[in-house]
Sequence to fold (141 residues):
Amino acid sequence: MTETPERRDRRRAVLLLLAVAVVAAGAWWWTRRGGDAPLVEVRLPRQLSPQALRGQAVFEAECASCHGATAGGSDRGPPLVHPIYRPAHHADLAFASAIRFGVRQHHWYFGDMPPRPGVADEDIPAVIAYVRELQRANGIR
Ligand code: HEC
Fold:
C-alpha cells in the first residue's frame, strides 16, 4: 500500500511540529531550572538560642537578599533550609567558606555567590547556628 504525497506531507508536518514542541519544552526547562529552586515555607523554631538570635540579625543584613529572610530562598538564591544543605552534606566549614570566599554556581542556576566581607569572623558561627536551628525546626538534620 503506497502513501499519497498529500498524506506523506501531512505526516511530516505533524512530526516536525512535534519535534519543535519537544525542543521548545526542553529549552524552557533548561533556562527555567535556576529559578526552579524550591521556595521553602520555613517554620520558625519556637525559640532561637542567644547565638542564633545574633546570627539572625547578621543573616538578615548579609544573606536575606538572596537566600530569603528566613533562608527559604528567593529569585536570587536557593533556600538554605533544604536537605542538600544539611550538616552531613554542607558542613559548617562549607558555610564559613561560602561567606569568606563566595561560591561558584554549581547546584543551581542563580550565578555565583559573592563573598560577604561584611560578616565579621566572630559572627560566622552565629550565622551558621541560626541556619542550623532553622534547618532543625524544619526536620533537616
Ligand atoms: C548575592 C546573592 C547571595 C548572597 C547575598 C548570599 N548568597 Fe549564599 N549563595 C548564593 C547562591 C546563588 C548560591 C548557590 C550557588 C550554587 O550552588 O549554584 C549560594 C550558596 C550558598 C551556600 C552553599 C555553599 C556550597 O558549598 O554549595 C551557603 C552555605 C550560603 N550560600 C550561605 C550564605 C550566607 C551565610 C550568606 C550571608 C552571609 C549568603 N550565602 C549570602 C547567593 C547569595
Summary: The two ends are 66 Å apart (CA to CA). The CA atoms of residues 111 and 141 lie 27 Å apart. Residues 62-63, 65-67, 76-78, 80, 90, 94-95, 98-99, 103, 105-108, 110-111, 113-114, 116, 119, 127 surround heme C (CB under 6 Å).
